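Quick one, T. Sequence first:
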Amino acid sequence: MKKKQKAVMILTAAAALTAGCGGSASVTLLSYVDTDLFNGYDIMNYTDTRTADLMGENYALITDENNHMTDEAISAPSVLLAGVESNEVVYAENVYEKMYPASITKLLTALVVLKHADLSDTVTVSYNASHIPVVGAKLCGYQEGDRISVETLLGALLVYSGNDAGLALAEYIAGSEEAFVAMMNEEAQAIGAVDTHFTNSHGLHDDDHYTTVYDMYMVFKELLNYETFVSFINLPEYTAVYRDAQGNPVERSYESTNLFFTGHAKAPSGVTVIGGKTGTTSKAGYCLITYFKDASGNGYVAEIFKAESQKSLYEQIAHLMELVP
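Structure tokens:
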């Protein structure tokens, strides 16, 4: 059994003993847990009042036994389908495997922004944010000196997946992208996403920039607590209104990268897609995490990493949607 799965079960068992049927509790991990499970924390003396909630009632518990499901229609190497309210695991395969997230990264960027910034604040776009030197990087087209609200940048980040929007937010909140990335990694640790390590705010490839399907599921569920986030991911198009360096008004419209909203992909009958986040690079493959509701209004998170093509990605996500009870 994988180390993290073992730790999850130990934590859950300890939480049950301490908290009974529910609620938060102080949990001391058992002394035989490997000390590298939590990236250097002193496991022998580790007590965390979040633990019972974190590993118990807030997230789906995925053990080795239910982490290797198979389905002929699913070819991606790392997949998860779980209930949002119920935490029921419908489908799981290799959810703790190290994966490259591409622009799924922007979910953690958004979480740090929502926790640490005032949406009404104004950001002045820097030279760095307006000159990302990567061929093919998805850009909103912002120019140095443009003055844009945090909320507007966040909308462009989540709907259009603009890398320049992510970098502008990072520099504004933390002073530099490096400092912001440190905040991202700290936030990941804080919510239990211990197998995540990011090196940038947007997801352009770096061999040392990685996560897991389960970690991003945890980040996504945290984000669902923010109405602003849910409203943005539900938009088929976002119109950004801001001012350029000379103070002139600028208006740009950005189409969603989610094909369920552009009409190029179709969800099964009875399924309502609320929204999600896409990500694609040559190393990451085609990735998507989606929040949807069934005909009864029950919410689910479906997640696929490293599909071989965009067409296959949406076919597999649609198939997962058909698996809900």
